[in-house]
Amino acid sequence: MSVSEYFSQFCSNLRMSDSTVSTIQQRYKQITKRINQDYWNSTSDTSHSLYVGSYGRGTEIWTSDIDVIVQLPYATYQKFNNYSGNGQSALLQEVKGVLQKTYSNSYIKGDGQVVGINFSDGNSFEIVPAFINDDNSYTYPDTNNGGSWRQTDPRKEIDAMNSRNNSTNKNLKRLCRMARAWKNHCDVGMSGILIDTLAYKFIGDWENKDKSYLYYDWMSRDFFKYLKDIDKDQNYWLAPGSNRYVWKDKNFQNKAATAHDNALLAIEYESKNRTSSAKLTWRKIYGTKFPS
To answer: Average pLDDT of 118-139?
Structure first.
């Protein structure tokens, strides 16, 4: 296999299977329909909901949890905002109870900022009840520290990622998925939105952003160099589109430096036609989804 062929296979291996996607879509529609029945007097399985998070941005890999915003009527916001104490927690408990009508046999939690549903096949959904604002952003509940309302604008983030992905020959989202494989395999302390934010910034200036799989060894090398050279004192970045703060969990630069060293070694093996050694070295970075 050539560099182009094994990176193409790697990217394919990172995608969810058609059956998994079908199951996700079915559950998304069931959740949406349940919310619409109880809050909107409707049986629609598409209105008032939106995929967000990695799945919504199209940067998920095979292990992704599914994040969904469900829009509730403004009257519901008024009801829980009038609570004397932590109406946000009461709202999550109400939505949890609504979803239990459909998912009585699944484990459902309601805490923090989401209602979570864990399915027996390992898939999980995190559902954020929210209220749409005039600018199409959302207000959502945060039950921590006595309760508060927060704002998020996922559509702007999704639009920004889609736009840059289209202008970079689809390389942005593939890079985000590859970086997630590295994160999982090497236990890197980075959130999905931080990976997407840094990949977005990197690829905007990368000289080969319009190329394809043949350049993915160089893209890996250059992205890890970009990560390792980031100032360790920097604690946050601004998300694409929404410009919300994206905070780091811990420093990732040392693990990026190790990945960069391995990428250089793999490229050296490639230059000497030592394909097996190259692929084994890429697997040190990306794990077993990379072709052997």
So the answer is: 94
Closest by CA to 130, choosing from 109, 119, 115, 145, is 115
pLDDT of residue 120: 86
Determine the Cα–Cα distance for residues 292 and 277; give it in Å rounded to an integer.
Answer: 9
The whole-angstrom separation of Cα 100 and Cα 30 is 12
Q: Is the pLDDT confidence value at 111 over 90?
A: no
pLDDT in tens, 5-34: 999 999 999 999 999 999 999 999 999 999
- The predicted pLDDT at position 287 comes to 98
Specify the pLDDT at position 123.
87
Quick one: DSSP state of residue 249?
Answer: S
Contact of 83 with 146, CB cutoff 8 Å: no
The CA radius of gyration of the chain, in Å to the nearest whole number, is: 21
Among candidate residues 221, 207, 213, 200, the one with its CA nearest the CA of residue 267:
221
63: pLDDT strictly greater than 80: no
What 8-state DSSP symbol labels residue 265? H
Backbone angles phi, psi at 249, to 5 degrees: -85, -45
Question: With b meaning 16 or more CB within 10 Å and e meaning fewer, what string describes 269-280?
Answer: bbeeeeeeebbe
Structure tokens at 237: 């970045």
Angle, helices 87-100/18-39, rounded to nearest 10 degrees: 110
Rounded to whole angstroms, what are the CA distances from 23 to 13, 43, 93, 104, 156? 18, 20, 26, 18, 27
Single pTM value for the model: 0.94
Q: Computed from CA positions of residues 100, 102, 104, 110, in that sequence, does the dihedral angle turn out positive or negative? A: negative
How far is 280 from 223, CA to CA, in rounded Å? 20
Residue labelled with tokens 């040190």: 284
